[in-house]
Amino acid sequence: MIIDVKNMKGEKVSEVELPDSIFGAPIYVDLMHQAYVRQMANARLGTHETKTRHEVAGGGKKPFKQKGTGRARQGSIRAAQWKGGGRIHTPHMRDYTQSMPKKMRRAALRSALSVKAGDAQIVVVDELKLDQPKTRLMVSALNSLVGSDSALILVPNKETTEDVRRATNNLPDAKILLANYLNIRDILRFDRLIFPVAVIDSLNAYLGQGGIE
């Protein structure tokens, strides 16, 4: 797939070929869904907790005698029907982690990138560079490249793109991400994907091998 390479002003400067193994891969909607659900589930802490009647302090003494009071028999004031008692069928700590083979996860990423490429939602720039780490400069660059300030920006490393990262931090609808941290949620969250030519090699090394036939 041949795609235009632009500068930070949105002007075409050259062309580059995106590897078909990543940006022209078969689209597995079910894998994309499974990978997304897995990532969201793995982000859950699972730290919610409530106490049952056996965990609430007190209640060791029978509140009143079994017979002769005209009231329903009770064994403990820590039963669920009492104020301050334990709880029934309420959340408890658990692990929400889901597993998914690496080949399936990477196949899902290739599918998502292929969808972006097919919908012309990928923008390649010659280099990510700003004169100053100013938010207004980043907004201007994004408007020139994609027509809005909402995009996922991939970078090859932290060192050469520090100014871009600082300029992007204040934008609520934009995110900057290292190429080897690419994930299904961020790909699907943003309408546009922007990255410099140098990222193609990183993606090729990360996603270009293996996969589901």
Walk me through the structure.
The protein is an alpha/beta fold. The protein has a domain at 2-27 and 101-207: 3-Layer(aba) Sandwich (Ribosomal Protein L4, Chain: A). Helices cover 33% and strands 14% of the residues. The protein contains 7 helices and 6 strands, in the order ββαααβαβαβαβα. A 6-stranded mixed sheet has the order 2-1-3-6-4-5, with helices on both faces. Strand 4, helix 5 (162-168) and strand 5 form a beta-alpha-beta unit.
Query: In CATH terms, what is the architecture of the domain at 2-27 and 101-207?
Result: 3-Layer(aba) Sandwich
What kind of sheet is the major sheet? 6 strands, mixed
Our Rg estimate from Cα atoms comes to: 27 Å
Low-confidence parts lasting 5 or more residues at pLDDT below 50? none
- CATH names the topology of the domain at 2-27 and 101-207 as Ribosomal Protein L4, Chain: A
* Top-tier CATH class of the domain at 2-27 and 101-207: Alpha Beta
> What's the end-to-end separation, in Å?
20 Å
CATH superfamily of the domain at 2-27 and 101-207: Ribosomal protein L4/L1
Structural class by sheet pairing and helices: alpha/beta
Total helical elements: 7
The sequence of SSEs as H and E is EEHHHEHEHEHEH
How much helicity do the residues have?
Answer: 25-40%
What's the pLDDT, averaged over the residues?
Answer: 91
Q: Which overall shape is indicated by the principal axes computed on the Cα atoms?
A: elongated
Counting DSSP E segments of at least 2 residues, the number of strands comes to 6
* Major β-sheet strand ordering: 2-1-3-6-4-5
